[in-house]
UniProtKB/TrEMBL annotation:
Keyword annotations: Carbohydrate metabolism, Glycosidase, Hydrolase
GO CC entries: chloroplast
Protein's name in the database: Alkaline/neutral invertase
PANTHER family: NEUTRAL_ALKALINE INVERTASE 3, CHLOROPLASTIC (PTHR31916:SF28), PTHR31916
One MF annotation (Gene Ontology) recorded for this entry: endo-alpha-N-acetylgalactosaminidase activity
Amino acid sequence: MGTSKAVLHVLSGAVPQFLSSDMCSTNLDLVFYSKCLIKSAKKYGPKYLRSLKCSSMSGCRIESYRSKHLGGGLYRNTTIDRLKLLSCKCQQAESVSGVDTGRGNEAWFVDNAKKTNLNSSINSQNISEFDDAEQLKRENEASISNGKAGTGTSTFAAASVDSIEEEAWELLKASMVYYCGSPVGTIAANDPTSSNVVNYDQVFIRDFIPSGIAFLLKGEYDIVRNFILHTLQLQSWEKTMDCHSPGQGLMPASFKVRTVPLDGDDLATEEVLDPDFGEAAIGRVAPVDSGLWWIILLRAYGKCSGDLSVQERVDVQTGIKMILRLCLADGFDMFPTLLVTDGSCMIDRRMGIHGHPLEIQALFYSALLCAREMLTPEDGSADLLRALNNRLVALSFHIREYYWIDMRKLNEIYRYKTEEYSYDAVNKFNIYPDQISPWLVEWMPNKGGYLIGNLQPAHMDFRFFSLGNLWAVASGLATTAQSHAILDLIEAKWTDLVAEMPFKICYPALEGQEWQIITGCDPKNTPWSYHNGGSWPTLLWQLTVACMKMNRPEIAAKAVSVAEKRLSRDKWPEYYDTKKARFIGKQSQLFQTWSIAGYLVAKLLLADPNAAKILTTEEDSELVNAFSCMISANPRRKRGPKSSKQTYIV
Ligand code: GLC
């Protein structure tokens, strides 16, 4: 049956059997549309048609679908090209073979609550009103321990640290968001005292990653699995802004579970998943990082749980391919790096990072390697795999070669000739040496180096962006030598990058006229605040992953001990302000979930460094060979293994 015929068939109500509550997982590309969804769409308009829905009524229970809106009226021109029955029992994603979904989170949370003497009905309100006396006790314990041992390793300090961790777990639990009874994510911030929640009451894809990793490392797989599958359902949603639809494959920045009245019954309600692809976000920017993080989390889920059935599902494979196709699509680019707008990642407002920002490139490289590992070979994917391999090689060459700076390279740039026209120009991007700012001349340590923030024609953004550098280490986008040099630089510049709270999002801040022009006079991004040189505790987890990869855990341990002194006392802020991170950020949310989860992931990885492998990637020999072939073909510099005889065929 052709798609449109099938849609008609379904619209006419010819497939009621799909509404069975035990119609669970399917890998088939079913075309399905439920009657109640249509009714709701009529009543609430297209907005609710776009949402994943789950009614509390028994007769209208399965309604997840993937659709592509081709424009025009709701019924006339809408093609529902694929629909998957996501879950049954109305409430849950289908059970995973080999994974106990029966007890799952519930069991752990009950145990955990018992352990900490907390009632299982604890809510954020209770948690946020943490007893001052308890706090004081903890501080006293810490200061006693510091006085005695000075290392934070005494029993008192250990007890204090334990209670911080316990508190963090409780807060993480309280941040969980449920959809039809199943946990599907964590809310961005859970601050009951905040009068300005903006969109922090949503589940952000990027913010959930540390939460998801913490759950995985704790053996709680269901929430991660549910998150992966539900966000997948949102991936190909109809999404428009002022009549324009972005590319298929885009993952939302965030989603919210809404409870809405059920059509025809004033007393009943239903839950809908309402995604935001950037059309409601500040700046209206599409989140390029969401899909990349989704792939990285999917691989981590498989590696940690041992359950590969999720990544092997046809709809999940399709989801991976859709993200890849969107990223690998031909454009006008001369560079292998992804061209994106300002604010399309963690830094989601204007900060002068449009073009080819390092953060996106590191996540792109990481997601390509993860996807390569997970894609099941099939006839139709040969072209995609070829494009992926080519891009991996070109991307790593480009970043390692052109984004890298250290003292030697800086001196080279300082002496650059400009206006070179030729194929073998040394100064390929026509960088004028005067761009080297005085701060950089002073700042660059003798030992160490880093990847610059962005590279454009005649423009190098020399700012140090932490997430991009840390993930370049974690993913292996940076070479081994470069990775160690990045960690050397972090050690050398500790007072700038860590100071009183890890970790500075970028260094240095934009000030004066530069701030005015580049941020558009953004009052939230004033110098040394928020995205403009603010300090973000969540970055602790990426720092820890990078340190574990390079077998230098002591750096992460030191940063965690700095964070531990304040995080709980300060109520887990989103970010800190000032050059040395002394103040809680001016507009910082409190009880920010990814600050809490980031801390927990760092602690879990310090306890079990091997676990970092679920997040790190390595080049395999094929890629190393391909890279070395490319290096030897480069007239300017030779680097990498020389002895390799194999060639890489793409
Ligand atoms: C801010 C951050 C963004 C984060 C969101 C939710 O907008 O810039 O990275 O995802 O808050 O915490």
